[in-house]
Amino acid sequence: MTKLWKLQPQRKSWRFLFPGNKNTKPRSSRRRKPNVPEIPRPRFIYGGPTVWYDGDPTRYRPCFLNSIKKHAEFAIQVYNKTRLNKYSLVELLHVHSRHRDGLLLHMIFTAKPDPEEDNYYNNPITFRAGINFNRNYLLYFYSHRGSREEERETSVPPDGDSISVVLFDRDPNTRCNWDNETKNMINECLDFALDAYNKTHRDKLVLMYLVRATGVRCAAGNLSTVDLIFNVKPYMNPETYHARVSMTHNYVEFVKFVGPARALL
Questions:
Q1: Do residues 239 and 257 touch, judged by C-beta distance below 8 A?
Q2: Rounded to whole angstroms, how far apart are CA atoms 107 and 75?
C-alpha cells in the first residue's frame, strides 16, 4: 500500500486538471509585461538652455515673477552705475538659463529712459542682459536692435572755467589737508567705483588704501568729476587701479588697471 505522504506531490500536480479546482493555472505561469520598447529618459546636457519665463505672466506664480524681475532690475541698476543714461524696467519678455561656469541668466526686457537724464528716446527700448547668478555680476547689457548704447554715450566735457584740484595725496611732499566732508565724499566715490567694478567683473577687488584723489571743480564751485588712484589686493600681489566718478551725473566712467603697486616711502 502506497503511503499517503508519497501521493501529496502528485495530488498537487493534478489540481489544475479539474475544472472545479480554484488553482487551475500552474505556478510557473506569471503575468508578463507587454513587449513595449523602452522610451529613453531625457538626459541633462551640460550647457543646455532652460526656459524660465516665456512672456506669459498667467502661467507663473507672482512670487516667481517678482524674483525674476529683481534680476532684471539688478542688471539695469549696474548699467546705470556705469553709463551716463539712466533706465528703469518696463516689462520682462523672456528669460532662459545655461550652466556654464555657474548658472547664467539671459534676459530680454524693455526699459524706458529717465526723462531727466535722456530725452533721446521716448518709447521703451528692448535690451538683452546676462547675469552670472552664482558670482553675482553682470555679463553684458546692450540694446536688442543691435547698436550698443555706449556708441552714442560720451562723457560730458568739462566747462571752460573748470580747474583741477588735489583732494588727497599720500605722498608726504605734496600731501594736502582735507576735512571730514571731503573725506566722506571720497570714501563714497571709492565704494561706488569698487561696487560697479565688482558687479561687472568676475574677479573681485578689495581696497587696500587710497594713493591719490583729484577732482575737477566747475565755475559754480561744485566738483564735476573725481579721479581716484588706489591699490587693491585681488589675490597675491597688490595692484594699482584708476577710477573716474562723475559727480554731476552719478555714474562711474571707468575703472582700469594701471600696473603693479609701488612701495610707499
A1: yes
A2: 10
Contact call for residues 226 and 215 (beta carbons, < 8 A): yes
Q: What would the grid cell of residue 180 be?
A: 571730514
Residue range 173-230, pLDDT digits in tens: 656 667 788 888 999 999 999 999 999 988 888 898 899 898 888 877 788 899 999 9
Q: What does the alpha-carbon distance between residue 35 and residue 32 come to, in Å, rounded to a whole number?
A: 9
Instruction: Quote the CA–CA distance of 228 and 77 in Å, as a whole number.
Output: 22
* Contact status, residue 76 vs residue 125, Cβ threshold 8 Å: no
Quickly tell me which residue has 558687479 as its cell. Answer: 199
Distance CA 96, CA 17 (A): 66
193's CB contacts (< 8 A; 6+ apart) are 228, 243, 245, 252, 255
> Which pTM value belongs to this model?
0.68
Match 573725506 to its residue by C-alpha cell: 183
Instruction: Please identify which residue in the block is written with the cell numbers 578689495.
Output: 206
- Determine which of 29-43, 117-131, 132-146 has the lowest per-residue pLDDT on average: 29-43
**Averaged confidence pLDDT in the chain:** 75
Q: State whether residue 153 is helix, strand or coil.
A: coil
The answer to whether 104 and 121 are in contact (CB under 8 A) is: no
C-alpha cell at position 167: 583732494
Cell numbers placing 161: 572755467
Q: How far apart are CA 261 and CA 265, in angstroms?
A: 13
